[in-house]
């Protein structure tokens, strides 16, 4: 089956996720700059989550440029990814409101980890659908960046109970790792 509807649906869900996240930002109570201070942790959590959602949207977009068709398994794997991404607004609000308390910070990392697992499952379903010699399979290769990210998320989950700020630094570092353009798919498509 064609991939257009899956891409359109995913784009719509991701747009809704971003909309919900921004709606969770509250108006400051006051009229001076000091009124913004209590909102800084919430805003920083929003920025990090917005970057993560953007990274997933960008990678999803590039991934589907490298495939020709989707299967029923791919549809379900994509829904699995969207499920974990749909939790970003809630976990983002919680970590921001809690000012990096241990449990919200750990669960933020858990949601990041599960989204990474879901993306891995989606990639594997696409490769099964397209074949081991497909453009996508060649582009993904060993996916070192994906594996390193998963380890960072798990370390952040554990360290949230020791020093939550270290977890926040790890989650930010993993996002920075993905902000460096990933040219694997573009390179394979160009060749």
From TrEMBL:
GO molecular function (one): potassium channel activity
Coiled-coil segments on the chain, per record: none
Transmembrane segments: 9-27, 39-58, 70-91, 106-127, 148-180
Pfam families: TMEM175
UniProt keyword list: Ion channel, Ion transport, Membrane, Potassium, Potassium channel, Potassium transport, Transmembrane, Transmembrane helix, Transport
Recorded family membership: Belongs to the TMEM175 family.
This protein's name: Uncharacterized membrane protein
Originating organism: Paraburkholderia megapolitana
């Amino acid at each position: 089956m064609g991939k257009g509807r899956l891409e359109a649906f995913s784009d719509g869900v991701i747009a809704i996720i971003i909309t919900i996240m921004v709606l969770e930002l509250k108006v400051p109570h006051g009229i001076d700059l000091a009124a913004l201070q209590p909102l800084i942790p919430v805003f920083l959590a929003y920025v990090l989550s917005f970057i993560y959602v953007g990274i997933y949207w960008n990678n999803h977009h590039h991934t589907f440029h490298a495939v020709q068709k989707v299967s029923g398994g791919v549809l379900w794997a994509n829904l699995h990814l969207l499920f974990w991404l749909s939790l970003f607004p809630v976990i983002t609000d919680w970590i921001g409101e809690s000012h990096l308390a241990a449990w919200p910070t750990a669960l933020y990392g858990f949601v990041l980890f599960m989204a990474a697992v879901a993306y891995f499952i989606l990639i594997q379903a696409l490769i099964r659908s397209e074949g081991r010699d497909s453009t996508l399979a060649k582009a993904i290769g060993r996916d070192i960046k994906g594996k390193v990210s998963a380890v960072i998320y798990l370390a952040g989950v554990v360290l949230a109970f020791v020093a939550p700020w270290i977890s926040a630094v790890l989650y930010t570092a993993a996002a920075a790792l993905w902000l460096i353009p990933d040219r694997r798919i573009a390179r394979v498509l160009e060749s």
